[in-house]
Design brief:
Elements (H helix, E strand, L loop, with lengths): L7 H11 L3 H4 L10 H4 L4 H11 L3 H21 L2
């Protein structure tokens, strides 16, 4: 039983075409999309904020998300 495998250039073209990663195509990643963690390095302040956020209750997290959405909506409206 003979198998034929694509070269790296073909894999890159396939990944681009399907909007996914080469890792996903070859079975190295369970996710078809890259996650934010794979693309961004967090600062110490951002990590600290994440830990603080995780310590909140469900209701407190919902409140913080609402505040942030409203802030960003107002900020975007004032930039137009």
């Amino acid at each position: 039983n003979r198998s034929i495998e694509p070269d790296i250039q073909t894999l890159a073209k396939l990944a681009d075409f399907f909007g996914t990663t080469i890792d996903y195509l070859v079975g190295h990643s369970p996710s078809p999309k890259q996650t934010v963690e794979e693309e961004v390095e967090f600062t110490k302040e951002e990590i600290s904020l994440l830990y603080d956020y995780r310590s909140l209750s469900k209701e407190e997290k919902a409140s913080i998300r609402l505040i942030l959405k409203n802030y960003l909506r107002n900020k975007n409206a004032s930039n137009k």
